């Protein structure tokens, strides 16, 4: 079964010039890019996207970080996409991320952790629709 997941290469990845290297890891792992763009979230966008975290102590910091510059948003297609992509990116905290994972290679800290990966098929669909119109998804 072919599924989709949603990712963002977060502002730190764009700032550090890591877009190409990260996309190379993603495509080398067998993910097909179904949608992709450089975009910047507004404060309102980030508060809505991360609404599930609004009571967390790091919410303000998270919104600041995710809105401070452009991100690369993308929808990725692969068999078992959500789970395989989370394996490819590694643990939320790069200190706990496995060798060779995107976060181990490119993330600075638990807050600035380089990439997002959806945690379920349902959220992948919601998050993809948040960033892309139907005609932008191939
Ligand atoms: P992600 O799992 O993609 O989505 C929630 C984000 O909140 C997470 O990545 C981190 O960027 C951020 N986050 C999670 N835990 C912490 C924390 N303890 N301190 C700061 N930021 C965090």
Automatic annotation (TrEMBL):
<keyword id="KW-0546">Nucleotide metabolism</keyword>
<keyword id="KW-0418">Kinase</keyword>
<comment type="similarity">
    <text>Belongs to the NDK family.</text>
</comment>
<dbReference type="InterPro" id="IPR036850">
    <property type="entry name" value="NDK-like_dom_sf"/>
</dbReference>
<keyword id="KW-0597">Phosphoprotein</keyword>
<feature type="binding site">
    <location>
        <position position="92"/>
    </location>
    <ligand>
        <name>ATP</name>
    </ligand>
</feature>
<dbReference type="GO" id="GO:0006183">
    <property type="term" value="P:GTP biosynthetic process"/>
</dbReference>
<comment type="subunit">
    <text>Homotetramer.</text>
</comment>
<protein>
    <recommendedName>
        <fullName>Nucleoside diphosphate kinase</fullName>
        <ecNumber>2.7.4.6</ecNumber>
    </recommendedName>
</protein>
<keyword id="KW-0460">Magnesium</keyword>
<feature type="binding site">
    <location>
        <position position="86"/>
    </location>
    <ligand>
        <name>ATP</name>
    </ligand>
</feature>
<feature type="binding site">
    <location>
        <position position="113"/>
    </location>
    <ligand>
        <name>ATP</name>
    </ligand>
</feature>
<keyword id="KW-0808">Transferase</keyword>
<feature type="domain" description="Nucleoside diphosphate kinase-like">
    <location>
        <begin position="2"/>
        <end position="138"/>
    </location>
</feature>
<keyword id="KW-0479">Metal-binding</keyword>
<feature type="binding site">
    <location>
        <position position="103"/>
    </location>
    <ligand>
        <name>ATP</name>
    </ligand>
</feature>
<feature type="active site" description="Pros-phosphohistidine intermediate">
    <location>
        <position position="116"/>
    </location>
</feature>
<keyword id="KW-0963">Cytoplasm</keyword>
<dbReference type="InterPro" id="IPR034907">
    <property type="entry name" value="NDK-like_dom"/>
</dbReference>
<feature type="binding site">
    <location>
        <position position="10"/>
    </location>
    <ligand>
        <name>ATP</name>
    </ligand>
</feature>
<dbReference type="InterPro" id="IPR001564">
    <property type="entry name" value="Nucleoside_diP_kinase"/>
</dbReference>
<keyword id="KW-0547">Nucleotide-binding</keyword>
<dbReference type="GO" id="GO:0046872">
    <property type="term" value="F:metal ion binding"/>
</dbReference>
<feature type="binding site">
    <location>
        <position position="58"/>
    </location>
    <ligand>
        <name>ATP</name>
    </ligand>
</feature>
<dbReference type="Pfam" id="PF00334">
    <property type="entry name" value="NDK"/>
</dbReference>
<dbReference type="GO" id="GO:0006228">
    <property type="term" value="P:UTP biosynthetic process"/>
</dbReference>
<dbReference type="GO" id="GO:0005524">
    <property type="term" value="F:ATP binding"/>
</dbReference>
<dbReference type="GO" id="GO:0004550">
    <property type="term" value="F:nucleoside diphosphate kinase activity"/>
</dbReference>
<dbReference type="GO" id="GO:0006241">
    <property type="term" value="P:CTP biosynthetic process"/>
</dbReference>
<keyword id="KW-0067">ATP-binding</keyword>
<dbReference type="GO" id="GO:0005737">
    <property type="term" value="C:cytoplasm"/>
</dbReference>
<comment type="function">
    <text>Major role in the synthesis of nucleoside triphosphates other than ATP. The ATP gamma phosphate is transferred to the NDP beta phosphate via a ping-pong mechanism, using a phosphorylated active-site intermediate.</text>
</comment>
């Amino acid at each position: 079964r072919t599924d989709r997941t949603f990712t963002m290469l977060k502002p730190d990845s764009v700032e550090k010039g890591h877009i190409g290297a990260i996309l190379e890891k993603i495509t080398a792992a067998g993910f097909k890019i179904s949608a992709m763009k450089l975009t910047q979230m507004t404060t309102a966008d980030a508060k809505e996207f991360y609404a599930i975290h609004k009571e967390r102590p790091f919410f303000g910091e998270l919104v600041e970080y995710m809105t401070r510059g452009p991100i690369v948003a993308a929808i990725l297609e692969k068999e078992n996409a959500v789970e395989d992509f989370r394996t490819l990116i590694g643990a939320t905290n790069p200190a706990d991320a496995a060798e060779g994972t995107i976060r181990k290679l490119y993330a600075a800290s638990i807050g600035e952790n380089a990439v997002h990966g959806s945690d379920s098929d349902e959220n992948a669909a919601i998050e993809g629709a948040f960033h892309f119109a139907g005609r932008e998804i191939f």
